[in-house]
């Protein structure tokens, strides 16, 4: 999920001191509040007791060992595509396998990468680093100095948290730069950092008391020069405590233009933009709902998530637009402009959406979905004479398409396409042309020869048609007996796409299960309006959409409540909580992973306040009234026959607080409702820290699902 813009974890006591009277009332009546203490002795004892109950049940199942072995084979396979990342003209990759559990950051030339057996050079061995330093380091990426590409800011997480320690690394010597020699070292925080020049950073982070928002993100932006300590950093912008965050964005193009933007996120979806120079700040009239994708020939490439009118020109919601910074500066709106300044260079149709966009030296490249089927286009602005020329790049039909890394110089861009039963292909294209070469192909990792993919639709409560994908055996019978797993997300403008997932394929589909993916409202499948249809007071629409797909599967006799399971995580975990409390009659299995469940207190747990733009604010009585109707923790009731749920989270999750899952399970205990609970003590929100732990995670999931849906 993209529950984004997280910041360093704040002590629970500090958070609770700032809650509203409404939340305080909830605190007084919540018998399980103590479980919000992430690593208190009492909480960890409760977690151990739950794990000690669940693990023997699932791990003793005769299917568990085989599922775990299959999952580890996939997660640690050397046949995986080593996804490339350009730094300069060199290809880098972060790789984990059974030998390198924490992983190695490595590099090779483009030509070597394209060969059947690339010659990799290890740059950082994270297993060796963690062992040498006695740290639980998890890789969180690196940001390298533009143009020279010789120094990088390496992000290291303790156990998988979003908060990271940042250390400067020299790619030439393959060593961290000693602070005594001027190397940048930034202590643990959730932080956003950009290179201003070779020796200056511009960043936001937790600078100390009073510098983080209610959401837990930094709102004070400073510049830091080489050799300075944090206390010497110079403040350039200060947002508000009530914002979600403030962050810098340094944009450069191939012609040497540079613009430094400050984004003040007033809520999760709306931002104010300022241009910063050493001479001061100026607010730019960019759309509040949207974002800046990059810079091309001196113009900003803007993604609009709302209709944006500037200089008497309207760009539709969901479009890509060009506008020059000069045009946006105060007093220049009325200046007569020639060419595309501003103008929309790509606008989606009613059943389309622009999922991704990036900027190369000479093109804008965008992924466009039409009825949840992907395509890739390259856009060239030819000015008054030729307008915008759109060139399609090759992709597989009916696929999920994802943009990867593009070269820092030139127009080379990596991208992937894949389908539910079509293994991922990695392609490399020159965005100025209409061709691409297939560089790598993922070998088939499960047997799909007897599988078919259908796209169907269900009718939601308000009459809206909700598309869904259904993957099943060709020879299945519509008798209501097919074990079926229904997945959805429905939030934050994120789409559920037809991706190739070897774990679902091997651990579920190959064993006779069917798999459905519902494209419910709240997602981004059909542009901003599809997302906005389920925001705040209209949240119930997303849940009704999900139930409609479940009911259609049952009505078609594809499955039945006895054999239908629900799965979701993060915001999808909230969906699972609602599915369980509002329609317990539809399912015999519900996997509630890394969930939001106490929606009355979600804003006072890190980083919940950042999501008020999605869900609303329970401290406001009118908004609390919507939320109370569906908040799963508060809607568990005695005397209801609930399905046996599998609830799972991570102690190290500093994005969605583990207290949600813990309290929900404890409430089920109060009601004497059987359930299974497992909490991984590492891994963070992404659960990707360790392939072995991740293999166990998926084996537990599918053992549980097998027991509930496949056994008769």
Automatic annotation (TrEMBL):
SUPFAM superfamilies tied to this protein: alpha/beta-Hydrolases, Peptidase/esterase 'gauge' domain
Catalytic EC class: hydrolase
EC number: 3.4.21.26
Classification via Pfam families: Peptidase_S9 (PF00326), Peptidase_S9_N (PF02897)
Peptidase S9 prolyl oligopeptidase catalytic domain span: 508-709
Keywords assigned: Hydrolase, Protease, Serine protease, Signal
GO molecular function, one term: oligopeptidase activity
Signal peptide: 1-23
GO terms for cellular component: cytosol
Annotated ranges, domain Peptidase S9A N-terminal: 30-440
GO biological process: proteolysis
Protein name (record): Prolyl oligopeptidase
């Amino acid at each position: 999920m993209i529950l984004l813009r997280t910041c360093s974890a704040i002590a629970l006591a500090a958070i609770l001191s700032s809650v509203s009277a409404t939340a305080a009332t909830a605190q007084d009546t919540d018998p399980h509040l103590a479980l919000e203490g992430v690593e208190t002795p009492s909480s960890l004892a409760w977690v151990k007791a739950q794990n000690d109950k669940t693990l023997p049940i699932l791990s003793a199942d005769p299917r568990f060992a085989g599922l775990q072995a299959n999952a580890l084979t996939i997660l640690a396979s050397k046949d995986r595509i080593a996804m490339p990342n350009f730094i300069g003209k060199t290809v880098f990759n972060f790789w984990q396998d059974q030998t390198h559990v924490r992983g190695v950051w490595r590099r090779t030339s483009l030509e070597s990468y394209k060969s059947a057996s690339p010659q990799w050079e290890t740059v950082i061995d994270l297993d060796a680093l963690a062992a040498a330093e006695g740290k639980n380091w998890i890789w969180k990426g690196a940001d390298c100095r533009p143009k020279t590409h010789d120094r990088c800011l390496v992000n290291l997480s303790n156990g998988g948290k979003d908060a990271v320690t940042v250390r400067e690394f020299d790619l030439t010597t393959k060593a961290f730069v000693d602070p005594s020699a001027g190397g940048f070292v930034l202590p643990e925080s959730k932080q956003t950092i950009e290179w201003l020049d070779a020796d200056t950073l511009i960043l936001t982070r937790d600078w100390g008391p009073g510098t983080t928002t209610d959401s837990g993100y930094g709102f004070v932006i400073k510049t830091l020069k080489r050799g300075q300590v944090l206390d010497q950093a110079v403040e350039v912008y200060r947002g508000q405590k009530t914002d979600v965050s403030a962050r810098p964005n340094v944009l450069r193009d191939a012609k040497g233009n540079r613009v430094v933007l400050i984004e003040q996120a007033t809520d999760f979806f709306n931002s104010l933009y300022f241009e910063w120079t050493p001479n001061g700040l100026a607010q730019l009239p960019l759309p509040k709902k949207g974002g800046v994708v990059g810079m091309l020939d001196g113009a900003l490439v803007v993604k609009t998530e709302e209709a944006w009118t500037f200089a008497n020109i309207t760009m539709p919601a969901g479009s890509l637009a060009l506008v020059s910074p000069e045009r946006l500066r105060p007093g220049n709106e009325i200046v007569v402009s020639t060419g595309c300044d501003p103008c929309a260079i790509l606008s989606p149709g009613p059943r389309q959406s622009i999922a991704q966009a990036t900027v190369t030296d000479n093109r804008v490249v965008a992924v466009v979905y039409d009825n949840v089927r992907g395509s890739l286009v390259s856009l060239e602005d030819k000015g008054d004479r030729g307008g915008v020329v759109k060139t399609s790049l090759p992709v597989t039909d009916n696929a999920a398409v994802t943009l990867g890394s593009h070269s820092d110089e030139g127009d080379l861009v990596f991208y992937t396409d894949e389908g539910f039963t079509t293994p991922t292909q990695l392609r490399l294209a020159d965005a100025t042309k209409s061709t691409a070469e297939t560089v790598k192909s993922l070998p088939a990792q499960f047997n799909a020869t007897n599988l078919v993919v259908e796209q169907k639709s269900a009718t939601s409560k308000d009459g809206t048609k909700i598309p869904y994908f259904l993957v099943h055996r060709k020879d299945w019978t519509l008798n209501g007996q097919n074990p079926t797993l229904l997945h959805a997300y429905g939030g934050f403008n994120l789409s559920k796409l037809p991706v190739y997932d070897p774990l679902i394929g091997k651990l579920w589909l190959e064993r006779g299960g069917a798999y459905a993916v519902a494209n419910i409202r709240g997602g981004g499948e059909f542009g901003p309006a599809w997302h906005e249809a389920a925001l705040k007071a209209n949240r119930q629409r997303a849940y009704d959409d999900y139930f409609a797909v479940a009911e259609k599967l049952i009505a078609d006799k594809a499955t039945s409540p006895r054999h239908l399971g629900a799965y979701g995580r993060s915001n999808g975990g909230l969906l699972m909580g609602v599915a369980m409390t509002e329609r317990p009659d539809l399912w015999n299995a519900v996997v509630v992973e890394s969930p939001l469940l106490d929606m009355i207190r979600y804003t006072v747990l890190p980083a919940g306040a950042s999501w008020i733009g999605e869900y609303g604010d329970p401290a406001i009585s009118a908004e609390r009234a919507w939320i109370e109707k569906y908040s799963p923790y508060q809607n568990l009731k005695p005397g209801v026959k609930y399905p046996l749920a599998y609830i799972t989270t991570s102690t190290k999750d500093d994005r969605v607080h583990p207290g949600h899952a813990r309290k929900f399970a404890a409430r089920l205990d109060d009601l004497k409702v059987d359930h299974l609970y497992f909490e991984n003590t590492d891994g963070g929100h992404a659960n990707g820290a360790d392939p072995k732990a991740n293999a166990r995670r998926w084996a537990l999931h599918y053992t549980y699902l097998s027991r509930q849906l496949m056994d008769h």
